[in-house]
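pinning this so it doesn't scroll away 📌
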Amino acid sequence: MDSTEFNYLNLEFIFMGDKPDAAEVVRTALADRRLLGFVGGAVERENSTEVLAEVATVSEARDAVLYRIDAKGKLREGSRVTKLVHELKNSTEADYVLVDGDEIDGPTPDDDILGDLGATNELLHGATLKASELVLAAGFDDNQITVWNTDSGLMAMPTQPVFSPGIARSNRPFLSLARTGNVITATVEAKRPRRELYGPSLMMVLDLERQVILEPETDSPAEQAPQGT
């Protein structure tokens, strides 16, 4: 099956409070319905726990039909998103389920309800990074930063997040690695765009606990499905 036939939508399961088994609960619920896609690791916030799933759909319709994998590994058309999401919300006991960022049963919860994300550590690398500028960028007068020399320049590990707009242009390019739970975000800031092909900033996100919902049999049609991003 050609990769252009696949579309993925995001289902975000939000549980209020601490729920260490959230990712496994979501994966089990999706696997029981034999859906095609992926489940990320749990992301802990101050007041809640979130799990992001990517499920394959037949089309980009608003109430799209989802793909499912039958017992022989063949792809079939399954339920529509709206119907299935309500079932998943009940079976996982999630407080909210967002479909591509929107809650299906009411207002989408904001950060005041969910709380801040867990503490992040950032590692910055530049040719001439200055600890004083990093302190200013982080916005904390008493922030502590460890700075050391490497063969490729200075490295700095602050105890508080650093915001890239506060880094002097003379200190670019630099690399920032931020980790929140199982998710690592890498940001590369250049001094200026590379002609018209690339902008001055590039961001990449890696979920260390991302896994498939179901493991299709070898050489089955489902195994040949595109792997998403």
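📌 and the second one:
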Amino acid sequence: MVNPTPFFAPDYFATQDVTLPRLQKFSLDVAQRLALDNPGGAFKALLAGLTTFHTALFGSMAATDAGISQRRTGAQLLWGDLADLQHQLEEDEALIDYKSKKDPAIRLAFFPNGRTEYSKASLLTADLLFARAEKAALAHVKMRGPEFDPALYTRLYTAFKVGRDDTSAGDEQSTKARAEAQAHRSDLTGRLSDAVKLVAAQFLRDDARCAAYFRAGLLQAPAAAAARVAVVA
């Protein structure tokens, strides 16, 4: 006797083998085929559910990608701003040393732990270093002149904070969207399993018509799908 258990499984498609790109093509294809062959509107509710879950899942995936992109862009900006801070300090170090001959507090304000502290900056220490450099530059107005612009340090710090905040926001968005996508994927694959059962019940003993709604090859890797077609041929 044929084991009927698989037919009653709640979700045929909840497997890692069904990748998101394949699932996207397959679910869209199933919905299109149900819409084209929908006798008496029997699949109206099914179609509505598939469309809703498909849109929700791949909307969440798009939000995930957008968050990752925002994080990468923000990270590039903040690391670039940190490099710019180091460059600016290198440019101003000779002047800082010259002014410090009369006022040692100037160099101490910029480099209380030595110049190398900036070259070893990390994300954990960057905010402190930017704030310190800005405060030192603004405090020692005696250094102002054509070769020294304290406002540069303020602009660098502001740009760094924008990059840092974008990185954090991108992380939060992608994490939230990933969690939502897991739930939406479960909804979609469960509804696809419902579709298999509902179509089978609609066309009892008409295997060919049932199979026409579900092109299983779309769920397989290209090489596997090609091999399957070759065997059938």
